[in-house]
Amino acid sequence: MDAGRIPARLFAQLNHKLWGVEEHIKRQNRWAEIENFSGRSVLAIRQDIHAKILSMNLTAMVSNVA
User: Fold this and answer.
1) Is the pTM of this model over 0.85?
2) Alpha carbon separation from 19 to 12, 30, 33, 34 (Å, rounded)
3) Strand, coil or helix: 6
4) Which among 14, 15, 27, 52 could bridge 32 via Cys, Cβ 3.0 to 4.6 Å?
5) Does any domain span residue 31?
6) Does some domain include residue 3?
7) Does any domain span residue 2?
8) CA dihedral 42, 39, 56, 53 (to 10 degrees)
9) Which of 36, 31, 23 has the alpha carbon at shortest distance from 56?
10) For the chain, how big is the Rg over CA atoms in Å?
11) Would you say residue 1 lies in a domain?
12) pLDDT tens-digit profile of 6-46?
């Protein structure tokens, strides 16, 4: 990488912005227990993922109203 084209301070700013996103994803994965599925079939995993996404969306809707 050419240090003259991309200043180091830009990387610090991007890393600072990325930190919050990574923490949010980590919190959501922990809350949704995305690693714990109720079955081993593809259908069971798909249903679990869709149910957890629906649950997170409903929770977000309720919390925004409140």
Assistant:
1) no
2) 11, 17, 21, 21
3) coil
4) 52
5) yes
6) no
7) no
8) 10
9) 31
10) 18
11) no
12) 777 887 888 888 888 888 888 877 877 767 888 889 999 89
